[in-house]
Amino acid sequence: MTKAIRMSAAGGPEVMEYVDVEVGEPGPGEARVRQAACGLNYIDVYFRTGAYPQPLPAGLGMEGAGTVEAVGAGVTHVKPGDRVAYAGRPPGAYAQARVMPAAVLVKLPDEIDFETAAAMMLQGLTVQYLFRRTFPLRGGETILFHAAAGGVGLIACQWARALGVTMIGTVGSDEKAELAKAHGCAHTINYNKENFVERVKEITGGKGVPVVYDSIGKDTFIGSLDCLAPLGMMVSFGAASGPVPPFSLNELASRGSLFITRPSLFNYIAKREDLDAMAADLFSMVISGKVKIDINQRYALQDAAQAHRDLEARKTTGSTILIP
Fold it and tell me: Which homologous superfamily is 2-121+287-323 in?
């Protein structure tokens, strides 16, 4: 038997239970991984609350790192003893060990430890696809990135700086503003004190930005559109404040023929060759020192409910991990 977090109903943090589970042998295409650390991400909240429905009872957690214990038939890219990390479906990372699809596993370079890997896979791969594929940044652009002091945000600050991009980041406190600046964010906007649309226009001389990366959703959506230059791209990749309400396509036309996309990491890593290339790019950025992964919160696995409470209360900065 091994320990894991399970939920039998959707709801608040209290629905998560720390229980004994049986971890069997991997079937075809599967691997059993003994986990050293698990990542905490806002998408876990969406699954817990039922915003992203899943069959119940179920596990939670989308990323982790550890050692392969066994593999099933047809698995050739990893073997027992390999150090691996992953970000992918199905949920279930909140566990000491799990049997999971081997297709999402990537081998870890020796230079990257388990805790760093568990803290960076989902968030780091998110920044990779946002900056490299969704709206490819060449260098020289000025961009707006919401939640700049969060786990994704602090990686984005550093990655933008490495690319020669001027990043404007929104934050919820002066302390978070200092944290974002220390990681390379050129301009910070405390949305509790300032109007971020007015500040973006001021910083850009009234031109607006070519792209907005927005994981906040409902509270920032229309304001984000107002920050875009004509023909700009709205990248809505999360909904921490709630889902974006229905809107007229005329909102895009009236602001200068804007583009909009709602990307998901799991579509970008669906092909093995894409996952390998994206992971290699992320690993390179981390090993080079251009991107440092800040693990600012660690919780024991059995304290996952408190970790969720702190995440939803926006008390966390940088990355958070659970230790099985």
Answer: Medium-chain alcohol dehydrogenases, catalytic domain (3.90.180.10)
